[in-house]
Amino acid sequence: MLPNPQTLPQVVASAHHFQFTMWKVIGFCGALMFTSRWVVQMYYTRRLKRVVMPVAFWWLSVLGSALQLAYFIFGKNDSVGIIANFFPTFVAVYNLMIELKRKRRLRQGLLEEDL
Known about the structure:
Layout: H1 7-16, H2 22-48, H3 55-75, H4 79-107
């Protein structure tokens, strides 16, 4: 289905009236962090020649999700965005806690490094 040619001026007009707010900057930073985690993951996978999820991936996930969640709660008040970002934030925090606990046990000599 082709777009209606009459909607193009509306799109251009809405882009012309775009305004940066503090909450939009926070939301964009969160989106950038959340997306950049895949670049980090790909870098480590290529470098180590095996699939890995580095700790930086989980930190970027936590920070990016938290910033987007703040944007959707306080800046936009959008229930769909809140729900869409709550679960990834929870999962990222959980995985980061597991990884930090594993590293602490490795330092204490309670675990051997995975091969």
